[in-house]
Amino acid sequence: MPKHLPRICFAGPMIGRNPGRVTTQGEILSDHFRNIGYQVICVSEHPNRYVRLFDIAWTIIRRRKEIDILLIHIFGGPSFVVEDLASFLGRLFGLRTIMLLQGGALPDFFARWPNWTRRVLKRAHYFTAPSTYLTKAIVPYGFQGHVYPNVIDLANYPYRLREKPEPKLFWMRTFHDIWNPLMAIRVLAKLRQHVPNATLVIAGQDKGLEEETKRLAQELGVSDAVTFPGFLTLQRKIEFGTQADIYINTNRIDNMPVAVVEACAFGLPVVSTDIGGLPNLLTEGETGLFVKVDDDDAMVAAILRLLNDDELAGKLSANGRKLAEQSSWEQVRTLWESLFDEAMNRPVK
Fold first, then answer.
1. Residue 3 pLDDT > 70, yes or no?
2. DSSP three-state, residue 197
3. What structural domains does the chain harbor?
4. Buried b (16+ CB within 10 A) or exposed e, 121-145
5. What three-state secondary structure class fits 19?
6. pLDDT score recorded for residue 10
7. Percent of the chain's residues with pLDDT above 70
8. What percent of the chain lies above the pLDDT cut of 90?
9. What CA–CA distances, in Å, run from 212 to 168, 177, 191, 252, 295?
10. Buried residues in 164-191 as b, exposed as e (16+ CB within 10 A)
11. Phi/psi of residue 35, nearest 5 degrees
């Protein structure tokens, strides 16, 4: 640990502080660092993007003399306006700036706005990302990054080896087209043609598609086999995660999804679309099985493989837990503290 702990500020959407919202990595990291003695500012928890922009900017301006290292979460899209302003203020006030690349759609966003991307990214002294998927995305613009896994608290994820999985599927993301919940319902309907007792828990915050997902379950005749528990608190996540036997990830866009790491921590074999950073997170046949986006039949076939191959299911379950252990705070903390040490020992340019 550095002799003199730097004062750090995490800037980005910390909206998981609000009930019913997904906890972000910024919140998790800021809490961990605060617990081990760091002076931490974490901004902003306001759900409204415009209020959040003002809150972040005003906090950096007002508290700039309390900050040694500014950590900005980079998601791209509309949030890039916030990230642009925060990084400008960081440079203006001579703050050591680390950009945490997190948005699964960042490569496409960077390609669409290359000049804007280059202008904002050049303000950073260091870059981190939870997988090589995003560190590779900044190379064409002349930058390099460090890979630091997303953090989970392993103690919150009771492990059970799934050597003989039952057809109990678990889906846990957000009801939005990016996360493709409709595919999960179609997969269940087709799976029940082979395994009539298959069930699905499909959980998460509603972003406009929950009612349509429920209607599709009724239309396909599987509503009696689907549970919609809504957004899951940690206790409910543990409840459903320990009861399930297979995790399905149907995303259209993704980076290093914490939900998949959580599934691995529970020991759930994962069947996932092969998009974004997922091939950098999971290894085919070792820690997961991959299918193409919207390929229902391929996902059904992969699930049937797990149900009929105890050795494969057990291997994915055991290896998945080992993968999740790489995201423990104990593992990731040393990486961050080494970076802080390096940043504090180099002059700000």
1. no
2. coil
3. 8-151+329-344 (3.40.50.2000), 154-325 (3.40.50.2000)
4. bebbbbbbbbbebbbebbeeeebeb
5. coil
6. 97
7. 98
8. 89
9. 22, 11, 20, 18, 20
10. ebebbbbbbbbbbeebbbbbbbbbbbbb
11. -65, -20
Whether the CA torsion 208, 106, 112, 21 is positive or negative: it is positive
Residue 200, strand partner residues: 169, 226
Give 27's contacts (C-beta < 8 A, 6+ positions apart).
10, 14, 16, 17, 42
φ/ψ of 178, rounded to 5, equals -60, -40
Integer CA distances (angstroms), 163 to 8, 65, 246, 262, 326, in order: 44, 55, 11, 18, 22
Per-residue model confidence (pLDDT) at position 1 = 43
Peptide bond into 223 cis (omega under 30): no
> pLDDT digit string (tens) for 180-237?
999 999 999 999 999 999 999 999 999 999 999 999 999 999 999 999 999 999 999 9
